Amino acid sequence: MDRDFNAVSASLGALYKCTPAWSVVSNVAYTDRASALYELFANGPHDATRST
Question: Which subcellular locations apply to this protein (predicted)?
């Protein structure tokens, strides 16, 4: 049985200087965690990994 997964991570940020004293900042992030050992090697179906 081959097990393959991708732990994705992404980030995007922007800064706009209105004046020397004020600025507006915006951030967007996305992450996905790697499966834990007890999820990867579950004996039977496991909801978190959608394995059967």
Answer: Cell outer membrane
